[in-house]
Design a protein that fits this description.
Layout lengths: L6 E6 L16 E2 L2 E2 H9 L5 E5 L4 H4 L5 E3 L9 H11 L4 E6 L9 H8 L5 E5 L4 E9 L3 H9 L5 H5 L4 E5 L13 H12 L15
Parallel strand pairs: 1-4, 1-6, 4-5, 7-9
Antiparallel strand pairs: 2-3, 6-8, 7-8
Length: 210
């Protein structure tokens, strides 16, 4: 049984925000607060510690994290490097990963992933149409294996997951909750939809084949 004390939450906010003009996406305002604040709500009180993976503006992220961590290696090498950095920094057996740009994630996301992982080492959210590789529960003992994969040049999350026992966790009852915001237009659309009591699917996530 995975308990709260077994879990570290990791919010990935280490990207360059290229499609938002190079702005720090996690700090972008959304419904009156930074995007990352909405995501933090989904983790706070449900995990032993919340980490934010950020490669700039650490002082701005600090109030919303127990710890702010940078990528283990520089150069903005992508989300897999962010995941590795979280696995390495966590002091719990499990790391629950979420992106900073999905402000409508379900409030019971932690419970859903914990309930769905079974005997696997990795559980990935599946909305009925696509997998969301950066919404995942990962055993932190995999850190060394990921370090080796990164050293070999691997940067694709799906290919690294495929090396291990992983499973889908069905979240098809609320697919719109996994909308991720990559552009100003997507952000405005979701803000408008949520203000009207609805939600709107964001940009495509990376697919993952079993």
């Amino acid at each position: 049984m995975i308990t709260r004390d077994d879990l570290t939450g990791l919010i990935l906010a280490g990207g360059q925000g290229r499609r938002m003009g190079g702005r720090d996406k996690g700090l972008e305002p959304f419904a009156g607060r930074p995007l990352v604040a909405h995501v933090h709500e989904r983790l706070a009180g449900r995990v032993a510690e919340v980490l934010i993976n950020a490669n700039r503006n650490a002082e701005a992220y600090a109030p919303l994290a127990d710890r702010v961590i940078q990528d283990a290696e520089g150069g903005f090498q992508g989300p897999l490097m962010g995941i590795y950095s979280g696995l390495r920094a966590a002091i719990t057996p499990w790391l629950l990963v979420v992106p900073c740009d999905s402000p409508a994630l379900p409030h019971d996301l932690v419970d859903r992933l914990v309930a769905g992982i079974g005997e696997c080492d990795i559980a990935v959210a599946f909305d009925g149409e696509r997998l969301h590789p950066v919404v995942a529960l990962i055993r932190t003992a995999l850190a060394e294996d990921l370090a080796s994969s990164l050293a070999d040049g691997e940067r694709k999350i799906d290919r690294w997951y495929a090396r291990h026992a992983w499973c889908r966790v069905d979240v098809s009852d609320c697919p719109d909750a996994f909308a991720n915001l990559n552009t100003d237009d997507e952000k405005r659309r979701l803000e408008r939809a949520l203000s009207e009591g609805n939600s709107n699917r964001g940009g495509k996530k990376e697919s993952l084949s079993p």
